[in-house]
Design a protein that fits this description.
Layout: H1 15-23, H2 32-35, H3 43-51, H4 55-64, H5 69-75, H6 82-85, H7 97-110, E1 125-129, H8 133-144, E2 148-153, H9 161-164, H10 173-186, E3 189-192, H11 202-206, E4 231-240, E5 243-253, E6 258-262, H12 269-277, E7 284-289, E8 295-298, H13 311-316, E9 321-324, E10 327-330, H14 331-337, H15 342-345, H16 354-366, E11 372-376, H17 384-396, E12 400-404, H18 408-414, E13 417-421, E14 427-431, H19 434-444, H20 465-474, H21 490-519, H22 524-558
Parallel strand pairs: 1-2, 2-3, 6-12, 6-13, 8-11, 11-12
Antiparallel strand pairs: 4-5, 4-7, 9-10, 13-14
Helix pairs in contact: 1-3, 3-4, 3-7, 4-7, 5-7, 21-22
Length: 560
């Protein structure tokens, strides 16, 4: 089957059928197909690797002289070059070289191979103007030689002709994105929206004075009136099976209050937000929402969007105009402030990247003119420029903010009270941001702490507010008048001592699974099982690494 210019709807190969196609190769000594390739790829060699079930070797051959081999597999007119030169043309039909190359590069992505490597740094810097195919190839080659590479692109996105000159049905944007991502991982720095000759001269570029575009998002906080009654939790209880989330908890959220909710994974942080948002109901008790309260909820889960809907229509369905403290702005103006260029605004949502979709979702939440904002792990789902401006936005926001987050810097910048869930239904309250919380935990180590429940009961050993205030000033232990010794709990100490070993074991397991995946490349059932297991281990590793950071931060604070 001569593929030629096929589109994305064409049926691709399976592991079995690609082997069958590779077996048709005559293994010609003179390799006429390789001699005919204008990109310098060696089809004879990578087909031979596929024939002998060495898919990693095939991927390495493809990338050796062609950093964007995944793109070429889809758009190269192979029927004019390598396939036309194939020796089988005189027998029956040429080898489907483009189809085999596409299968290998897709498989490379599926199993997470990292083929392109950066060379040892040589201390020299290179600037490349334009991020089209030649610019990308040059960048990969120079990075492999150890150069620091900066790519200047006048358009808003990298890719040049690959992104803006080839129809989506021929070359999906996701393929362009993943090829560019490979070069970014090598260390290339892309400066999009920079027109050399307009934004800076060639002399400035040579002198190292080219501007580094820092994309920012600007949005003034919305103005929405809030009445006296806000959000009130009365004797709220919630559990899932034997797991207790809240136990008889009562609290009145004050106007303009900023609450941060922290606690171990699975303790119910997101559940509290969902109950406030009305997504879940408490098992007992009541959550009262004031009549003037309008809630905007940024959920952690991926939100369904109609991929066929235009970006601007998504925002217009929420609000044609948004009222800020400086007046009304249109949906289009709002989108521009969130880095959606006019051409992007009229494109379907399906053409956006995953990060752009999350940015659009955030924009939709803020455009609702809510006076209560709920954020569930915003730091995990937004890029740094968007997150930074969100922090600035929240600092000028005149309503209530309640956020679940593991990001200590986000908590320090945004919240003024911390709710700590202990995983057993109780909540402890700490004034200030995350740093204040850590300091308070240090002072309270070894003491009976005040547990805030709906019943607001005081522990017998708890001190009065006056005594506690005095202790904060002196830093003395209430029992013996000596400075309190700050240390890990027994459980944390044990975890601190063993977590490096646990992380090493998980990394070894991932490496072992990588080897098993390569060995079972032709066994689709086993391959799927191994990849699922690897994904679970990767999640475990991420959790352990997050815990490692937390414990080491505590150790630094404790002077250990």
């Amino acid at each position: 089957m001569t593929r030629g210019y096929s589109d994305e709807t064409q049926q691709g190969y399976t592991m079995d059928t690609v082997m069958e196609e590779a077996q048709r190769c005559l293994l010609c000594l003179d390799a006429p197909c390789s001699a005919a390739c204008p990109a310098g790829t060696d089809p004879a060699r990578f087909i031979r690797s596929v024939r002998f079930r060495n898919l990693k070797g095939a991927a390495e051959t493809i990338r050796e002289n062609n950093a964007i081999g995944g793109v070429c597999a889809r758009v190269c007119p192979t029927e004019r070059y390598c396939q036309q030169a194939c020796s089988r043309c005189g027998i029956d039909r040429p080898i489907d070289i483009g189809g085999i190359q596409r299968f290998v590069t897709d498989f490379e992505e599926t199993v997470g191979m990292e083929i392109l490597k950066t060379g040892a740094a040589n201390g020299k810097k290179i600037g490349i103007i334009g991020s089209g195919p030649s610019g990308l190839q040059a960048a990969a080659a120079l990075l492999g030689l150890g150069y620091e590479v900066h790519i200047y692109e006048k358009s808003e996105k990298a890719g040049g002709y690959l992104r803006y000159g080839i129809p989506e049905y021929r070359l999906p944007e996701r393929v362009v994105d993943r090829e560019i991502e490979k070069i970014e991982k090598m260390g290339a720095e892309f400066h999009c929206g920079t027109d050399i000759g307009t934004d800076c001269t060639m002399d400035e570029l040579k002198a190292g004075k080219a501007p580094v575009t820092d994309q920012t998002v600007e949005l003034d906080s919305v103005e929405t009136r809030m009445g006296k009654k806000t959000i009130e939790l009365h004797h709220v209880s919630k559990r899932f099976g034997e797991k207790k989330i809240l136990d008889d908890f009562s609290y009145i959220v004050l106007r303009n209050q900023r609450l941060g909710i922290i606690g171990p994974n699975g303790c119910g942080k997101s559940t509290i937000l969902k109950m406030i948002a009305g997504v879940l109901k408490p098992d007992a008790g009541e959550i009262e929402i004031g009549e003037t309260i309008k809630i905007g909820y940024f959920a952690q889960e991926e939100q369904h969007m109609d991929d066929s809907q235009r970006v601007i229509d998504y925002v217009k369905d929420i609000a044609e105009y948004v009222t800020t403290k400086d007046g009304q702005i249109s949906a289009s103006q709002l989108l521009e402030r969130f880095l959606f260029t006019p051409d992007m605004q009229y494109a379907p949502i399906g053409k956006l990247s995953g990060g752009e979709k999350r940015r659009l979702y955030l924009l939709g939440v803020l455009a609702e003119n809510a006076n209560v904002l709920l954020f569930d792990e915003a730091g995990n789902n937004l890029d740094i420029p968007t997150l930074t401006i969100l922090e600035d936005y929240l600092n000028s926001f005149t309503g209530i903010v309640i956020t679940v987050s593991h990001d200590r810097y986000f908590l320090d910048n945004v919240v003024d009270r911390i709710f700590e869930l202990d995983g057993n239904g109780a909540i402890r309250q700490f004034e200030g941001g995350y740093t204040d919380y850590v300091e308070a935990k240090k002072r309270r180590f070894g003491e009976e702490s005040k547990v805030i429940t709906g019943k607001s009961e005081m522990k017998p050993a708890e001190k009065s507010t006056e005594e506690e205030t005095q202790e904060k000033k002196t830093g003395k232990n209430w029992k013996d008048g000596q400075r309190q010794k700050v240390k890990f709990s027994f459980k944390e100490q044990r975890e601190y001592e063993t977590i490096d070993e646990e992380i090493a074991k998980l990394e070894e397991k991932i490496a072992s699974l990588d080897r098993q995946i390569a060995a079972n490349a032709t066994n689709s059932v086993k391959l799927r099982e191994l990849m699922e297991e690897q994904e679970k281990v990767r999640e475990q590793l991420e959790e352990k690494e997050e815990r490692w950071m937390y414990l080491n931060e505590l150790a630094d604070e404790f002077g250990l």
